[in-house]
Specification:
With 84 residues, the chain is mostly helical. The chain has helices at 4-45, 49-70, 73-83. It has 2 domains: 1-46; 48-84. The longest helix has 42 residues, at 4-45.
Length: 84
């Protein structure tokens, strides 16, 4: 029906290109993420003590709000029983 060696070559080539593209996207995404982390660290290091305190308290408040709104009651009970 088909030339097996041609079919194997074509499938192998397409698979290689697909994997290569995904690896390049992963590397590029990692580079972007590293750049954003470095920028965030730079901005945080330039903040005053009061700004840092406000940022941390804001993050804690938002985390508590998300926890109270979206975590089911049985999970909350389990967490409180085991970790608090």
């Amino acid at each position: 029906m088909y030339n097996k060696s041609w079919h194997d070559f074509l499938v192998g080539h397409l698979l290689f290109n697909h994997l290569k593209k995904n690896i390049m996207n992963t590397k590029f995404s990692g580079l972007i993420l590293a750049g954003l982390a470095a920028f965030a660290y730079y901005k945080y290091s330039k903040m005053s003590v009061d700004e840092k305190r406000n940022l941390v308290s804001s993050i804690k408040e938002k985390g508590k709000k998300l926890y109270n709104e979206y975590v089911p009651g049985n999970v909350k009970d389990n967490v409180e029983k085991n970790f608090m």
